[in-house]
């Protein structure tokens, strides 16, 4: 995954801080926005881990701090639920202008309720996913405890949440009471996925039921059995991200992978606008090759020499395992570490004056996990040099080229 810091302006001219998570080896097929939980930030573990899981499935994900939180400008005391919804709309405008308009909204807890509201206001959104969302924003009032009455009587009060002090004004409470998530769900015509844990002690699963019954089809529910509300566990968060990505594929158009055909074993295809990012068909398998960013590539795939070194490593590992199976020896695992470079030949004289004396060199280290004795291990080192790719690299080869 690639991640970079970004900033954009909200409806009131305040700078909001975010991060844009992108797939490691391709351009995003779609963009998503993540709305974090109540008083959380973009860097909260659940937000970060779900976003990374979505990025691994080809999404570009914008996660940002709502006004007055994290690294974003503004005073939290002047914000409310409606301002969170407005921030999501500003985030969508930013993506549309600088990258590509978002098609997916994801929200956690109160952020899930905000995503339902914003989903009906952003034209490009085709799907909304909520995680542990309350069926009504007013649900967060219980987190204010005894200070709720102080806020209503005196207009504002300081409340300690998650070890931090927050100032809440009466307008925040009034705004919560004015917005019904159930009503927003009734007015939402985009696809909706509701994820909720039956063990959620903060927002009971009854909330998911109320949202589900209010929403139109297409709507889906996935139980997060065993998860807690904040989704701290990394594996649970990654699971949520992959579930959302798989579900969204049914409702969000994704470009069809261009297929390249050949009667040869391998074909490579490179368009002018793609720099060095090259499509490969290796037998029945598709992948990409590329060059590092430092030489003008996008680093979306291995370099040609890394592919060559990979062939040597894979062939070596296969050959060793094949030999041990035939000999009925048992090795639990074999690792073949290979690097390619051009180095001077060992017998080179005056190397510095003769650059052509450099030869192609593969440095290979083999790690074998087994109970084999030293004699057997030495035999496997000999077998490694007999792998077909190793022999090919040592033999005289020819490349016959014709115009197709």
From TrEMBL:
<protein>
    <submittedName>
        <fullName>Osmotically inducible protein C</fullName>
    </submittedName>
</protein>
<dbReference type="InterPro" id="IPR029058">
    <property type="entry name" value="AB_hydrolase_fold"/>
</dbReference>
<dbReference type="Pfam" id="PF02566">
    <property type="entry name" value="OsmC"/>
</dbReference>
<dbReference type="InterPro" id="IPR003718">
    <property type="entry name" value="OsmC/Ohr_fam"/>
</dbReference>
<dbReference type="InterPro" id="IPR022742">
    <property type="entry name" value="Hydrolase_4"/>
</dbReference>
<dbReference type="InterPro" id="IPR036102">
    <property type="entry name" value="OsmC/Ohrsf"/>
</dbReference>
<dbReference type="Pfam" id="PF12146">
    <property type="entry name" value="Hydrolase_4"/>
</dbReference>
<dbReference type="InterPro" id="IPR015946">
    <property type="entry name" value="KH_dom-like_a/b"/>
</dbReference>
<feature type="domain" description="Serine aminopeptidase S33">
    <location>
        <begin position="47"/>
        <end position="132"/>
    </location>
</feature>
């Amino acid at each position: 995954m690639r991640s970079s810091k970004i900033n954009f302006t909200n409806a009131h001219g305040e700078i909001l801080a975010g991060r844009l998570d992108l797939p490691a080896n391709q351009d995003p097929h779609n963009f998503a926005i993540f709305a974090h939980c109540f008083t959380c930030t973009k860097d909260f573990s659940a937000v970060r881990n779900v976003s990374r899981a979505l990025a691994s499935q080809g999404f570009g994900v914008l996660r940002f701090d709502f006004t007055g939180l994290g690294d974003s400008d503004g005073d939290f005391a002047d914000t409310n639920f409606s301002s969170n919804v407005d921030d999501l709309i500003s985030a969508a405008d930013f993506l549309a202008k600088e990258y590509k308009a978002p098609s997916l909204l994801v929200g956690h807890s109160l952020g899930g309720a905000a995503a339902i509201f914003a989903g009906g206001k952003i034209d490009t959104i085709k799907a909304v996913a909520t995680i542990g969302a309350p069926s009504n924003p007013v649900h967060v009032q219980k987190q204010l405890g005894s200070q709720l009455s102080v806020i209503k009587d005196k207009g504002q009060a300081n409340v300690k949440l998650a070890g931090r002090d927050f100032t809440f004004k009466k307008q925040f409470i009034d705004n919560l009471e004015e917005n019904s998530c159930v009503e927003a769900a009734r007015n939402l015509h985009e696809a909706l996925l509701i994820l909720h844990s039956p063990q959620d002690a903060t927002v009971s699963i009854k909330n998911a039921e109320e949202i589900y019954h209010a929403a139109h089809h297409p709507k889906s529910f996935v139980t997060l059995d065993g998860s807690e509300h904040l989704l701290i566990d990394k594996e649970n968060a990654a699971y949520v991200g992959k579930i959302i990505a798989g579900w969204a594929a049914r409702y969000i158009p994704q470009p069809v992978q261009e297929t390249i055909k050949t009667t040869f074993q391998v074909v490579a295809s490179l368009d002018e606008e793609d720099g060095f990012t090259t499509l490969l068909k290796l037998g029945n398998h598709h992948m990409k090759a590329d060059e590092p960013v430092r030489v003008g590539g996008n680093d979306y795939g291995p370099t040609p020499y890394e592919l060559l070194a990979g062939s040597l490593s894979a062939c070596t590992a296969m050959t060793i395992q094949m030999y041990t199976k035939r000999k009925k020896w048992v090795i639990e695992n074999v690792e073949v570490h290979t690097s390619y470079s051009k180095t001077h030949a060992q017998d080179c004289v005056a190397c510095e004056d003769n650059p052509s004396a450099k030869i192609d060199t593969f440095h290979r280290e083999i790690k074998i996990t087994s109970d084999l004795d030293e004699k057997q291990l030495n035999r496997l080192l000999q077998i490694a040099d007999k792998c077909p790719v190793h022999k090919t690299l040592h033999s005289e080869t020819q490349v016959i080229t014709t115009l197709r």
